[in-house]
Amino acid sequence: MPPVLIACAHGTSNPAGRRAIDALRREVARLRPGTEVLEAYVDVQEPTLPEVVAALPAGRRAVVVPLLLSAGYHTSVDIRQAVESRPGTCAAEPLGPDKRLAALLQERLTESGAANDDAVVLAAAGSSLTAAAGAVAELAGMLRKLRSGPVTAGFGASARPSVAEAVAAARQESGQAGSARVVVASYLLAPGFFHDKLARAGADIVTGPLLPHPVLAQLVLDRYDAAVAANFTRG
């Protein structure tokens, strides 16, 4: 029997955001029949991750897959503690950075009407942990290779520059503050608190969140498979 896949999201009070995450989890289950897929959250919603882990049958192996785009407090503290609380449970890597996410961001930019030479601010949720900022910088580098215009990063909370600061800096850097377009690329999975804030950052265009898109379910399964191979198939 394959290990349980615990799809662990942040949690949101936004109804559209909840529907988007629910749909992602259903798609993961559809693509992997025979693998039990459970929901869990680190904030706002229930069931909480510790509750889900504690309720697993004795001896049943499980992989917690963060439905998060980069490492941060929730992966290094909340998910790590939940995993360490129970033998036979491990954590997968977060969904990003990944070249497929950069390609998806470029797709969202094109859909929004952004030109390839527009200045782009990659807007991430943000974390005080250095590793999280590094992951966003890595993803920005991947996106930069797909575009002719500049790509910088901004954060919704806990890191600098803020998205609004990054938008202002991008306008100043262009030397045409009154006419150059600055586009915010939403590096967020679903609608919610942080995505709502992007509309107030002063950009000319704000892209939609990453969901829905089929590549995200495949990323979840890839992270799950890598964790199974690393933790449960040795020797």
Task: Give the structure's gist in a few sentences.
By secondary structure, the chain is of the alpha/beta class. Helices cover 43% and strands 16% of the residues.
Spatial gap, N to C terminus:
18 Å
Shape: elongated
Bin the helical content. Answer: 40-55%
How many DSSP H or I helices? Answer: 8
The value of Rg in angstroms is 18 Å
The largest β sheet comes out as:
4 strands, parallel
Query: Uncertain segments of ≥5 residues (pLDDT<50)?
Result: none
How large is the share of residues in beta strands?
Answer: 15-25%
How are the strands of the biggest sheet laid out side by side?
2-1-3-4
The average pLDDT is 92
Strand element count: 8
Order of helices and strands: EHEHEHEHEHEHEHEH
Q: Based on helices, strands and strand pairing, what is the structural class?
A: alpha/beta
